[in-house]
Amino acid sequence: MKHEQAKKYGMVIDLDKCTGCGACMVACMAENNVPFKEDETNKLDSITWMRVYQLTNGKPFPDTDICYLPRPCMHCEGDHGHSPCVSVCPATATDYSMDTGIVSQIYTRCFGCRYCMAACPYHARYFNWWDPVWPNGMEKYLNPNVSPRMRGVVEKCSFCYHRYQLAKDRAFMEGRRELEEEEYQTACTQACPAGAIVFGDLNNKTHRVHQIVQPDPAHAGRPKNPKAFRLLERLGTNPKVYYLSSREWVRRSGDHYLPHEGPGGGH
Amino acid sequence: MKMDRRSFLSFLIGGAAGTTLSPLPWKLTDDLAIWSQNWPWTPVPAGGEVTFVETTCMLCPGGCGVTVRKVGDRAVKIEGTPGHPVNDGGICILGLSGLQLLYGPTRVPAPLRRAGGRGENHWEKISWDDALALVVEKLAALRENRLSHTLACISGTDGGTVGRLMERFLTAYGSPNFIRTPSMRDAYEMTLHLMQGVQASAGFDVENADFILSFGSGILEGWGSPVRMFRAHSAWKEKGVKVVQIEPRLSNTAAKSDKWLPVNPGTEAVLALGLAHVILKESLHRKEFVDFYASGLDRWKNEVISKWTPEQVEAVTGIDKSTTVALARSFARADHPLALCGRGKGSTPGSIGEFMAVHALNALVGNINRKGGVWAVPGPDYIRWPEVEMDATAAAGMQQPRIDGAGTEKYIFARHLLHRVPEMVTAADPSLVQALFILEANPYYTLSDSALLKKAWDKIPFIVSFSSFMDETAQNADLILPNHMYLERYEDVSYAEGFNKPYIGLAKPVIHPQFSTMHAGDVILRLAKALGDPVQKAFPWEDYEGCLDDTFGDALETLRETGYRVEADFAPGSGYPVFETASGRFEFIPEEIRDAGMQAMVQPQGEEPAFPLILIPFDSQRLANGYIGDPPFVIKTVPDTVLKGDALFVEVHPETAKAIGLSEGRAALLATPKGQARVRVHLFEGIMPGLVGIPTGLGHQAYDGYLAGKGVNANALMGPVEDGASGLNAAWGIRAKLSRV
To answer: Residue B725's pLDDT is what?
Structure first.
């Protein structure tokens, strides 16, 4: 039997289409049993696996412009799976899967040292400072496919890994080894009313995400599509979340570029 | 036994060796490890069979199809229904959070009778029989005293069976006071009535338009059916459709548009007339429409040409005259240009002059009832109940003028004018409203001029809320008869806001009722039965489901299966339709209201110099500002530049803030002629200097700890401004003062 080709699941988010509505954030919270507190206005301790940031071009009225940027976990590949968080975890509570390209988070292993949070350049990781509390009766909507977390552990976006497992199980029952593109989609991708998020296998040439991004394997997956960029490209984290924008200033805000540099500039 | 050193040590060592060899320490270590990973207080969601139920979302008038994922008998996730004609798989932030409303602590668990003073939130649970008996007793007494017309109902819904049952109940009982909550729908309906002679809703063929000119419509803020607009917006991006957004603040829509025109607030209509000026002067209008299907053009043209030259428009709107000319040309030269209005989400109607001016632009380019244009969508026709047989009391009651004055000589074209009710109630003694029903609405929160509203509220002796949730209105009622929430009940949704085809969605019970609630339709039927003839006679149905069955007949089964019905090939006439105005043509200046088009501007309330700034409310997709308040998930997404702790931030241009001596984050006092509030200041380059932007949808006093007490209710600082020509509330802002504290 042919050996299964390794997957590299990734995402491309079209910032021209993203309206900043926040549906991805809530779809994620609902799918992944993300807890909430009475006051969530301190954004440092507000757990949002997917967070929509607002960027501005800094120009005065009326040349001001804003753009929204949804930020899930980037599932960095780093150099051969040495993503920033995976490299520092003393408990092997987070790991890079060479089969799927997904950075996992195993809550029962995590003992809350938060090295990974310090290491993550994207602020994609959140710490449970408190035990989750659902108001009386509200725990009824909890999704049995994702275990609710407890105080003292770190959590983050898993690319809805449980959906991958379910899809694999289903395919297995039907005697298939390979998943169709639409069989495994994250909750945010599914929900996005603007259709701004595209998710799939970056290694698979038939998947839209590959076709849009045109990752360059010779340069650690850097996009060949001139409209596409990654966040903090020059850190070498090799993230698997790409962004599209037709606006130069938006692409430039993806990293700390000097005036003469640009997103296409390289290391 | 003698205890010497030797035996003591033997005992100790032997004991230690024995314990080590026994399973005890290992068992304890293992237990400890397990215990440290045991979080009995962290719920373990139960598994079960996974099923999907398709239904219709009722959290806004968008009419989206949603699919609810169930595990066992629990609903665990709401997702958009793929292939649905309105939202095709997409879903908005509020729709996603529906389960927090279903299972949340804001539900009213049973019929409640007020135990303390009004608004004190002390309640006594009573049985449904007792609750209904209370209402019947009150209503029977009013009717006996020939005061049936003093019963009023404020309803968030009017086209479907539940709204119509309520209206029918009022008719049979003898009251004309069925009042729908206000929105831009009122203004659009009136526009279509006046200019096209039809009773219809405005539908927009946004998918096929190729140039969008939006006069402040929050296309990405929740205008129309939000998910449909998001999808259309993405399609525009793909097809390269130009979007021009006209409003004084850089909203999300403005940021995403191809061109943002920051117009002086409240002068949007003048810009529309200025564009018409250029189009007419340069003869860019579509003659095949205007010459054959429209009337009144010459008269309108004269006024537009003489009054609104690009120079004059620049003076009023602040939009450069060359911009106006260029915009008019590109609008008129597009194949399917579409002009939209209704500010923000469209929760305030607006001035009829403004709506007519914008609609006239669509007519100039011939974009009425054709591909990519504005369509007149006839109201639902499936409710064909027999006429109500009124007795003398009912007939006399129905002869009384409506409390809001709609339909009277002064407000002849208006159908619902809720903003007038507080004033009318406070003006008369005894109150013109003796009993008030509130159905799917939260006027205690959404109506502006809260101070006056509270006075009026105090004068209404008997207030019954049908709300599923403990919202502000329910909290200030005398009796709550909680409806099933939308995921627990059958109800037809007769309308999807802005959708350009006749559409019916069906909400289905996804889950059995979680509390001791009752379908509002059943409550109406039971009240009618208890009141006896002649009211009872108008309701020949056993229960609400019987009524649904009878209304839809065989069609109900298909509706149950598919969840919706849409006239997919609906076209408002082939080619251009026949207009039903007196002239049979599209009226540029309807005779009945001929000066209105030229009085399109509405001034904000308040005077300088006491109020040197102008406060404009702005909407956001992340803040529900209608009947439903933000559930915990949604409020969690609100940025900390809008809400921090309980403090609300208002947006001010840095220059404006500097002049007052305010810097980022500083506390300030925001005062308007209608009220004042403590706020904090967020400096934003995207708002026109001289304005203060206040987000809508915050400042709730009811619901739960996740929402109550956070921020300021923008409605409390605003007041209605009546549009002279139509009577509709046209307030888009109010004069304000911001000062350091």
So the answer is: 87
Q: Which amino acid is at B640?
A: D
**All structural domains of chain B with their residue ranges:** 5-36, 112-184+384-493+509-562, 197-379+577-594, 613-740
Please report which residue ranges of B400-471 form alpha helices under DSSP H.
421-427, 443-446, 450-459
Helix axis angle, B268-281 to B352-364, nearest 10°: 30
What residues in A contact B641, CB-CB < 8 Å? 54
The verdict on B644 touching A (C-beta cutoff 8 Å) is yes
CATH 3.30.70.20 for domain A9-252: yes
- In DSSP terms, B736 is beta-bridged to B613
| A42 DSSP β-pair partners | none
Give me the pLDDT at residue A267, please: 40
pLDDT, residue A5, reads 78
Q: Give the tokens for residue A7.
A: 């997957």
How far are the Cα atoms of A122, A231, A262 from residue A255, in angstroms, in the given order?
Answer: 11, 6, 9
What is the DSSP secondary-structure string of B617-646? Answer: EE-BTTB--SSSPPPHHHHHTS-TTTEETT
What Rg do the C-alpha atoms of chain B give, in angstroms? 29
> Closest approach of chain B CAs to the CA of A2, in angstroms?
33
Q: Check CB contact under 8 Å for A48 and B237.
A: no
Which CATH architecture best describes the domain B613-740? Beta Barrel (2.40)
CB pairs under 8 A between A and B: 185
Q: Fold for B112-184+384-493+509-562, please state it.
A: Rossmann fold (3.40.50)
Host H or E run for residue B313: helix B310-317
In angstroms, the separation between the Cα of residue A26 and the nearest Cα of chain B is: 6
| Residues 248-267 in B contacting A (C-alpha not used; CB under 8 Å) | 250, 252, 255-256, 260, 262
End-to-end CA, chain A: 41
- DSSP reduced 3-state for B364: helix
Chain B neighbors of A131, CB-CB under 8 A = 39, 41-42
- Residue A179 carries which DSSP code? P
- Cβ contacts of residue B117 below 8 Å, gap of 6+? none
Block residue for tokens 């500010």:
B343
Helix (H/G/I), strand (E/B), else coil: B690: coil
% of residues, chain B, pLDDT over 70: 98
C-alpha torsion sign, points B704, B705, B706, B707: positive
- At B310-360, the pLDDT tens digits run 999 999 999 999 999 999 999 999 999 999 999 999 999 999 999 999 999
* A1 — pLDDT class (breaks 50, 70, 90): very low
Q: Rounded to whole angstroms, what are the CA distances from B170 to B148, B437, B641, B729?
A: 9, 10, 46, 25
- Length of chain B measured in residues: 741
Give B669's strand partners.
B678, B739
| Residue B153 to residues A248, B135, B464, Cα–Cα distance (Å) | 54, 14, 9
Measure the CA–CA gap between B485 and B499, rounded to whole angstroms.
24
The stretches in chain B having pLDDT less than 50 are: none
Rounded CA gap, B543 and B548, in Å? 9
Strand partners, B75: B70
Residues B535, B139 contacting (CB under 8 angstroms): no
Selection from B412, B411, B464 nearest residue B433 by Cα = B464
DSSP summary character for residue B573? S
Say whether B77 and A143 touch across the interface (CB within 8 A). Answer: yes
Report the C-alpha dihedral over residues A53, A59, A61, A62, rounded to 10 degrees: -90
**Reduced to 3 states, what is the DSSP secondary structure of residue B393?**
helix
pLDDT of amino acid B570: 85
Q: How many residues does chain A have?
A: 267
- Residues with Cβ within 8 Å of residue B574, at least 6 apart in sequence: none
Tell me, which fold does domain B197-379+577-594 have in CATH?
Dimethylsulfoxide Reductase; domain 2 (3.40.228)
Strands, sheet with B65-71, edge to edge from the N-terminal-most edge strand: B50-56, B65-71, B74-80
